[in-house]
Amino acid sequence: MKSSLEVDPRPGHEPGEVVPQHDVVCLHGGEGAGEWFAQQLDALGARAWEPRIGVNFDVTGPPGHLDEWVEAASSALYESTAGPAHILATGTAAYGAIMLAALHPEQVKSVILGDPLVDTSVEGFVATLRRVRAPSLVIAAAPDLDTDISIPQSIAGGIRNGVFVIIDNTAVPAHQSRSHSFNEWSRSFMNIAEGLHTVTETQEEHSA
Length: 208
Known about the structure:
Helix content is 42%, strand content 16%. By secondary structure, it is of the alpha/beta class. The model is unreliable at 1-16 and 202-206 (pLDDT under 50).
């Protein structure tokens, strides 16, 4: 399957910043990925991906629609990188990132979900969360003390290596309204994930 890939590599970063060694890919549900993740591309050395026209992310769409989006993202990763990538997704596309990590674990170094909008009652959702093996960070904006953070919290709790972070006094989506904090959490987490990956690879080499 051929997908449309918006590649926007931007290696420039501020002096002293530690940039993740592996590919960082921001997945979007439809058009406008570059604009939606504009504040992550430079800061994280990331690139944005969006599906070809007609494959917009829709968990309530026709049978196979969601699978098509996930496979398009997977195909794009195979075409553009030689190794696993850090996957970042927000809003409704978070479920697609979860499915990608569950179905194609060899392609995913870590998962970062910003303000995920997921229907946790979808059939198979809990089982899909349990299949995710990559270290996963869920970031939720909390505009006020009464903000309902149950969905992102349950997602982080359902993933074996899940971590949950709240950014207080921040409008949704956090990756835009408080981009500096969001990016710092993301960068730190990706670097930790790379360290864990290196340890795992070393252990596997010794046991081979």
